[in-house]
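Ligand: flavin-adenine dinucleotide. Inputs:
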Amino acid sequence: MTISMPLPNKEVLARRAGIVAAMREIVPGEGVVDATNEMRVFETDALTAYRQLPLVVVLPDTVDQVAAVLKYCHANDIPVVPRGSGTSLSGGALPLEDGVLLVLSRFNRVLDVDFENRCAVVQPGVTNLGITRAVEHAGFYYAPDPSSQIACSIGGNIAENSGGVHCLKYGLTTNNVLGLEFVTVEGEVVRLGGKHLDSEGYDLLGLMTGSEGLLGVVTEVTVRILQAPETARAVLIGFPTSEQAGAAVAAIIAQGIIPGGMEMMDRPAIRAAEDFVHAGYPLDVEALLIVELDGPKAEVDYLLGAVEDIARANGATTARVSTSDEERARFWAGRKAAFPAVGRISPDYLCMDGTIPRKELPRVLAGMKQLSEHYRLAVANVFHAGDGNLHPLILYDASRDDELQRAEDFGADILRLCVEVGGVLTGEHGVGIEKRDLMPEMFSEDDLRHQQRIKCAFDDKHLLNPGKVFPVLHRCAELGRMHVHRGQVPFPDLPRF
Ligand SMILES: Cc1cc2nc3c(=O)[nH]c(=O)nc-3n(C[C@H](O)[C@H](O)[C@H](O)COP(=O)(O)OP(=O)(O)OC[C@H]3O[C@@H](n4cnc5c(N)ncnc54)[C@H](O)[C@@H]3O)c2cc1C
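Predicted complex:
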């Protein structure tokens, strides 16, 4: 374990029994979990290399309870880690030894479906797919579709600004949220936006979306729902090299075609997914594109032809168009199961999440190949190709010597490469703890200071999800005196992590 967390406050640990009793008063019944064995299920999220039991787990089911928990923790200087379904790949929901883990999974009701206004109001613990399930009978769906959609919560999606295969055309979470209710660390309930298009005042809705549980706890979400397209068809296109597939992606977009989804997988990912799901993927290619076109039938037919022509001009050797909705779903099932599929061929993997300008794909792929040799670790690649969002999966075995360390160093170098070619550290999985210490690679001292000023405006005691996102924990009063350069901070005598 190479990423360190804030040292627990011994004074808070000493008050544990009193804190648990206070939580039980606020959330009666079975909503407080403090037995070690029962808390084990919460000790990690999907960044499973990191584990930590929380001080106590609290599962409120009313907004008043959330507000009371936060108010108590604020008054008593107790850190709080919000948690949805615990599928974060960046360690965003990793508990703290001296912190309350505030789990929102009991907030699982769809409150209102408003077809006339094309929106749904839901509680934050509703799963992403649960929203589509609630509206599909009338031909509607919720567009952002992370591969974890069967499990991840909409509250977690808001916190991570999650994406999915359909975000190329329909936007990320931030483009599909109309309103939020959240509770501040001091226990104040705030409402932003609503069913209408634009929210008043500063774009606080935009600020909250992607704030990784550092600014407030989301307790209600209003999302846009879309009418399902008349037709949707997907085509599997195989290429002899990833470079050719990357060039085809750039050419499709350059032609002005915005597919409903455009994903790419390399040979190891194709094989793992095919073995797992039997999606019908070709096994004799180095790279596979899955391109979905949706809209009126005539348009879809025309665009399928255009995409195939572009792909062939870029060296595609195979192209197979789905002939039914079942087949299209099967094509996607392979891609959506790519992470668990890779989990079957390697004891452990680290899933990276950098984003690059599309045209840099060949350069980054070549760089990744060299790094793979340097670190002696294999990598399987899955991309949201249309968005330039890479998900290299670094395969390692945590039980062997220094493999976790090598995997983390390899991952850090991939992200550095993404930044070097003009990209960013994260596309959709968030910074969490995973990319926290790489923030100075991307942001200047000024950038980080301004970001932390925003954090201080919401949470001046740094009690909400401390140890995540920002590479240095410090008191808000220090702002302006802090110089962070490539992770090296002055005032090393101050307690840091
Ligand atoms: C197999 C697999 C595939 C995945 N595929 C994708 C993908 O395609 N696209 C993608 O974007 N992500 C993907 N993810 C990552 C993950 O599912 C998303 O980040 C998701 O949004 C996390 O939701 P969650 O409910 O599990 O949140 P958690 O993991 O519980 O928490 C994530 C973060 O959100 C905060 N949070 C949670 N709920 C709240 C709340 N109510 N208020 C304030 N903060 C809150 C937490 O503090 C934490 O920082 C995948 C994960 C897995 C395991």
